[in-house]
Amino acid sequence: MDLYEHQARQLFEEHGILVPRAEVADSPAAARDIARRLGGRVVVKAQVRTGGRGKAGGVRLAEDPAAAERTARRILGMDIKGHPVRSVMLAEPVDIESEFYVSYVLDRAAGHFLAIASAEGGTEIEEVAANRPESVARIPVDPAEGVTPAKADEIVRAAGLPPRTADILIRLWRVLTREDALLVEVNPLVRTTRGQLVALDGKVTLDDNARFRQTRWGDDGDSHDDPLEASAAAKGLNYVKLDGEVGVIGNGAGLVMATLDVVAGCGARPADFLDIGGGASARVMSDGLSVVLSDPDVRSVLVNVFGGITACDAVADGIVRALDAVAPTKPIVVRLDGNNAVRGRAVLDHRAHPLVRQATTMDDAARLAARLADTS
Questions:
Q1: For this structure, is 4 an active site residue?
Q2: Using CA atoms, how far apart are residues 31 and 42, in angstroms rounded to an integer?
Q3: By CB atoms within 10 Å of each CB, which of 19, 77, 288, 310 scores lowest?
Q4: Residues in contact with 212: Cβ distance below 8 Å, sequence separation at least 6, in sequence order
Q5: How high does pLDDT run on average in the chain?
Q6: Exactly one of 185, 229, 239, 245 is catalytic; which is it?
Q7: % of residues, the chain, pLDDT over 70
Q8: CATH number of 96-213
């Protein structure tokens, strides 16, 4: 259950995280009225459940209420990565001194949450990790222990964040745990010229299994604008559409995040985030591969699985099932390691599909997938 930015912002505010004053409009006239109430000069932001809004022209500064009305008229109705813009949020601008990135995400395979933080916020974290991997800290968080002051200080030191960010990290953890979230992200978290720490943008994904406790969001928090995300959600898959050409499938959020980074480091762009989870069955693997292969932007697919609870032969059976059901036209690179990996590789060797290639390491698999995406 992905929330819109304005909904994520509401959660942040409820848990004591500072956010700019803002309101939501679904018409140019309403945008003009809101801008007037907020003091005239506002940032107009498209409300869609995807990243890259700024690059698509969905985030613009308006100098006065009349400009806000014109800007809202331009943004409303836009299509951003398959997401139609039906509303905009108008927010007070802030004077930024520096930008940071902080998030928590569930690592299903490892059985814990992962804190990801960087002193270089404001851009996509995959891009930062690809160009300057040393600038992104990844700290495991034991869900039983949570983010204590000591753990928050550890994250701050590892990422080179301002010391006062520790309090924000503790409050974000409360958002995660008290609101049944699987992902909480702030990008950017900014320090203003007045020394305040302010969450300028936020992304929150709630656990569908806790929907009965999150009824206040209703259908609005449960719909998927992107048809691929809707299809994946119907199959119970943890899938997020990205703006790239290499489809990525892995088991565990941490492994998938690492795979996205390695793909980006090979000069390609990931087309999605798809975590099939620990203990994934052949059916889950088949469903996931079918969704990724149906993305017209995908030129190659990278399946990266480290078998623990997940058995690699079950993953291989799922790949074979998908090959028979979908009849793919795009190359698929598979890296299997861990539990039953030898048997899984043998299953794929026996099927001998001309579009399936195997690699023994994640780096080799990513390089091959990137090369195939570039030439296909």
A1: no
A2: 10
A3: 77
A4: none
A5: 88
A6: 185
A7: 95
A8: 3.30.470.20
